[in-house]
Amino acid sequence: MKVSIFDVAKKSGMSVVTVSRVLNGAQSVREKNRQKVLDAIKELDYRPNAAARSLARGKTGIIGLIVTTLQDAFFDAIVKELNEVLALHGYFLAVSISEGSGSDGNHYLIQEDRVDGLILLSPLEEDSYIMELKRRNIPYVLIDNQKPENDAFSVTIDNFKGGYAATKHLLDLGHTSIAHLCGNEMFRSTRERRNGFLQALQEEGITPFEMVQGDFEIEFGYEACWKWVRDGNLPTAVFAGDDNIALGVINALMEARISIPEQVAIVGYDDQNIASQFRPHLTTVRQPADRIGLAAADMLLKRIDGTMKRASSLKIDPELIVRESTIKSKLSSSE
């Protein structure tokens, strides 16, 4: 038989009101009485119903965030910004790492009205989540989602524009033998960056040196570049799908004693912290994590308070940051 708040009140000798105050973290309860309630909760193994508590208070004060990984400097920066902005509005951020494979939307953060709103950061299988969030009437915002048809209430980066800018920069430097190492096809960003790359080349009547697909990992960039080295057939420039891939390329070229950017120029994507610390400093396309986090938090808060009722989406422009991996200079156009 399920233990209720009335059982806890009876066991502790306290009123239901006092038990409720303890559960909600009220500071007005005397420490002696608080301990009696906590002891009763432990002894009875009482687990408060999140939905009932939410109904009583009107809100939980918690925003959920589901992300596929935190082993990514770009994601980490977005989470940091979200946490700071939401804290200023009195919300706690509850972060859950979910690989997304096989997800059916029945995530514990969505169950029993545990959160006032939810943010999905680069979800792999967003449809099931969205369906369940709509069913439960939980406000949500997507960041870097995979399907354009789900762009309502989303914050995305114009990855096509980023891929185009990176490639145009290399073309403007006189490169005509340009390779592209891209990430996994499941990611929308992979496809859009590649399309931007191809568009820039097509405008100049140039075909790619090679396009290789892999993972957003240093190892992928390293192995792909070493193949070119072994074959004795190198491009003069590489547009890497992210900074990790670019760093792998740089490692391989440095081991092979191939000079950067004189023999091979490299552009990455994301502008992770290491991009401006690694030697040579990496030319890359910056995704403004602070603007993304702020925009997503603002959109979700407006959905929660009811001031945003119609579907809305925001696409943020990336920024090309030129450094030493494409132009040999101690000065860069932006650091």
From TrEMBL:
InterPro entries: HTH_LacI (IPR000843), LacI/GalR-like_sensor (IPR046335), Lambda_DNA-bd_dom_sf (IPR010982), Peripla_BP_I (IPR028082). Residues 3-57 form the HTH lacI-type domain. One of its GO terms (molecular function) is transcription cis-regulatory region binding. SUPFAM superfamilies: lambda repressor-like DNA-binding domains (SSF47413), Periplasmic binding protein-like I (SSF53822). Signal peptide: none annotated. Keywords: DNA-binding, Transcription, Transcription regulation. Pfam families: LacI, Peripla_BP_3. CDD domains: HTH_LacI, PBP1_LacI_sugar_binding-like. The keyword Transcription applies. The keyword Transmembrane helix does not apply. PANTHER family: HTH-TYPE TRANSCRIPTIONAL REGULATOR GALS (PTHR30146:SF109), LACI-RELATED TRANSCRIPTIONAL REPRESSOR (PTHR30146). This is LacI family transcriptional regulator. It comes from Paenibacillus glacialis.
